[in-house]
Amino acid sequence: MAIRLVSNGKVHGVLSVTVPAEMAPGEEEKGLVKQLAGEVSFALRSLELAQAHAPSRTAEGERQQRGGETGGDFAPEAGKVRTN
Asked: Cα 45–6–26 angle (5° rounding)?
């Protein structure tokens, strides 16, 4: 039994399940495999979205770090917050 892993129209892969002939899947088992395929597809899509947003979060974090390292909101000579 093979089911495509699809989310938002994008095919992420194929879930393939094999069982011995004497354990041929019934409708309930087929339904469970389809449900599993849906959950795996959702998880893959979520990972894809997280990775797509990761560069922007990383870039923002690096900007904040550089700001702190170069003085940013702090007076580098005194290490105190600027008041003006």
From this structure: 125
Distance CA 5, CA 48 (A): 14
DSSP 8-state class, residue 47: H
Tell me the per-residue pLDDT of 20-35, one tens digit each, with 9 for 90 and over. Answer: 888 888 899 899 999 9
pTM for the whole structure? 0.57
Distances (CA, A) of 47 to 11, 13, 33, 34, 79: 14, 14, 21, 20, 40
pLDDT of 51-66, one tens digit each? Answer: 888 766 656 666 666 7
Contacts of 41 (CB under 8 A, 6+ apart): 5, 6, 7, 12
